[in-house]
Amino acid sequence: MLFHRKDPKTPPRHERRVLVYALLAGLPAVALSTGLLFTGEYSDKTRWTLLILVAAAWIGFSLAVRQQVVFPLRTLSNLLAALREGDYSLRARVAKEDVLGEVMSEVNLMGQMLREQRLSALEATNLLQKVMQEINLAVFAFDEENRLRLVNHAGTKLL
Description:
The protein is mostly helical. The chain contains four helices and two strands; from the N terminus they run αααββα. It has a domain at about 1-80. A two-stranded antiparallel sheet has the order 1-2.
């Protein structure tokens, strides 16, 4: 995982917030079902069994919602980190026709474009080096800080 956290045991704030919102969304239904369980004429065993099942389903669905929200964001973060580090081979699976799917598709296209640009630059550099080696005159190339960046074979003889 490419997340940089102080304490890897605690989930990031966004993940906690998504979980809290999912739990809050289910709270009215859980409260209503709990009220109905304890106001109805059920045995204690039935009440507690159903209460445990409702609570387990509530927590389970909340965790599933968090996972469905956070996983694509982690994937996107890892893709962008790979692009930043120069690894253009990673691709995201784009299966959904939604906004997040469009974002993943755009990141994939950006990675493909950067890869093609890098290959073009390498090909141009190789061609330039071959041409420079064939020129019998000394050729020197300097950058904006007057540092020597490129010299051909005839130029190295003069140095």
